[in-house]
Specification:
The complex is a heterodimer.
Chain A lengths: L2 E5 L2 E5 L7 H8 L18 E4 L2 E4 L12 E3 L12 H8 L9 H14 L5 H7 L10 H9 L9 H4 L2
Parallel strand pairs in A: 1-5
Antiparallel strand pairs in A: 1-2, 3-4, 3-5
Chain B lengths: L14 E2 L4 H10 L4 E4 L3 H4 L11 E4 L9 E3 L3 E5 L4 H7 L7 H9 L3 H6 L2 H6 L8 H7 L3 E6 L2 E6 H7 L7 E8 L4 E7 L7 E9 L5 E9 L6 E2 L1 H7 L6 H10 L14 H22 L1
Parallel strand pairs in B: 1-3, 2-3
Antiparallel strand pairs in B: 4-5, 5-8, 6-7, 6-8, 9-10, 10-11, 11-12
Helix pairs in contact in B: 3-4, 4-7, 10-11
Classes of the chains: A alpha+beta, B alpha+beta.
Chain lengths: 161, 288
């Protein structure tokens, strides 16, 4: 029996093995390759997506547990051809290095800013404690997040798309 | 790469989502030896990175309403097995007797895993040495409600740790604990991510400020967390001086046979334990 869910606002279904990790459904089945496959153990955060409004590692979610779930990936975090404030700040501060960790970081930080309108550096570090940057570019990432003005905090509707 | 167990019976879905405890037990009993229950699924889904295939059949517990709920009253508390670490940390009230459990739930793993990993999974993942909630629940003298095909039982944590390796299907429904005037602390290293040593402490003092009652549970050192009975017996009646308690921990450290793994050798887990005991007593002294 197929599992039905919404992906970036569109209905999708998956008729394969329900034990398949959401990560593989996204990358192999839906061609949403912005979600990165790295540690596959929930340690690195590169595969983080929004499930039901919360950022979680997609490698740890069997698709069979996600019947009816709302899933948002990096491809759907902002309207087409637009960037959300986190993505814009990352570009403006030139923080992108190899790029493997960034989709997960954008998802995590977009949710974090939605819940924390006036973030501190230590709060950002805590929020990112499950997102590893192999290039170790953390300080510029935090600088970029701190530069986002309160008025630019990602809107709840953008996160839950 | 993901590796998979092989389904033994055709026509049975590799993942089913029952809506009652009885239905889940039936599926576990009838599914064959390669059938496992999943709660947050974080231990099972990362199995392939340990060389363990994902089991042939999974019984997902996320649709069973009875396994939900965090209810904390003035005299007692109940936490459903399907509650996540994140939800437990956010739902617990600020209270000295619950501080160890709140820290255990809020500091474990990383934020994404905390949103998925559950109380029941933490209790049942045999082989997962770094479980934070188990020593914290031992300090609360918690009892575990276990459902089996034969019926339900409420057992203490020590009995549960022995029975969780037993053959035969069972589910954890909830944990229950009494509220107390004990002060609690949960010290672990490292401060984030997965701990390699844990000291979880609850303590009551008498009118002279000496230790009247004490529970000290140690996690991530041996394969299973356990109460440190030798330490507890010796510490009762003494002043809760952090340095003195650390010295006592060093004296009794031969009570453990530590495990070695990639994240830390056994000697290290044991060597940092007195430091964690000292920090736990310092936290209690500092936070009152």
């Amino acid at each position: 029996m197929a599992v039905e869910f919404t992906l970036n606002g569109e209905w999708r279904d998956f008729a394969g093995d329900p034990r398949t990790p959401l990560l593989d459904v996204l990358r192999d089945g839906c061609r949403m390759t912005g979600t990165k496959s790295v540690c596959r153990a929930g340690f690195c955060g590169a595969c983080t997506v929004m499930v039901g409004g919360e950022p979680v590692p997609s490698c740890q979610r069997p698709i069979g547990m996600l019947e009816g779930a709302e899933i948002v990936t990096i491809e759907g975090i902002a309207p087409p051809e637009e960037l959300n404030p986190v993505q814009r700040a990352f570009l403006e501060h030139d923080v992108v290095q190899c790029g493997m960790c960034f989709p997960g970081m954008v998802i995590t930080l977009t949710d974090f800013l939605r819940r924390n309108a006036a973030p501190t550096r230590s709060g950002i570090k805590e929020a990112l404690s499950g997102n590893m940057c192999r290039c170790t570019g953390y300080e510029r990432i935090i600088d970029a997040v701190m530069s986002i003005r309160e008025t630019e905090t990602p809107a709840a509707e953008a996160v839950s798309r | 790469m993901m590796t998979w167990g092989t389904a033994r019976k055709s026509g049975i879905s590799p993942l089913t989502s029952p809506e009652t405890v009885d239905e889940a037990l039936e599926l576990l009993a009838g599914g064959g030896p390669d059938t496992r229950a999943i709660a947050g699924a974080t231990w099972i889904m990362r199995g392939p990175t340990r060389g363990e295939p994902v089991p042939a059949r999974l019984v997902a517990l996320n649709r069973i309403a009875e396994l939900r709920g965090v209810e904390i009253g003035a005299l007692s508390g109940r936490i459903g097995a399907m509650e996540s670490h994140d939800r437990i940390a956010r739902a617990l009230p600020e209270a000295a007797d619950l501080r160890a459990l709140a820290v255990a739930a809020g500091a474990s793993a990383n934020p994404g895993i905390r949103r998925l990993a559950t109380l029941g999974g933490n209790l049942c993942a045999v082989g997962f040495v770094a479980a934070d909630l188990i020593p914290a629940l031992m300090c609360l003298d918690a009892r575990v409600e276990v459902a089996t095909p034969e019926g339900r039982r409420n057992i203490d944590m020590t009995e549960f740790m022995a029975m969780r390796r037993a053959a035969g299907p069972f589910l954890v429904v909830a944990v229950r604990f009494g509220r107390s005037g004990f002060r609690t602390a949960h010290a672990r290293t490292p401060a984030r991510d997965y701990p390699v040593s844990i000291a979880s402490l609850s303590m009551a003092t008498d009118a002279e400020g000496r230790i009247a009652d004490l529970r000290l549970a140690v996690g991530a050192v041996e394969a299973d967390a356990k109460r440190w009975a030798g330490f507890e017996d010796r510490a009762r009646g003494q002043a809760p001086d952090p340095a003195g308690m650390a010295a006592l921990a060093t004296e009794f450290s031969a009570d453990f046979t530590p495990v070695s793994a990639l994240d830390a050798p056994g000697w290290y887990r044991l060597q940092v334990l007195p430091v964690l005991v000292r920090r736990a007593f310092e936290q209690i002294r500092r936070e009152g």
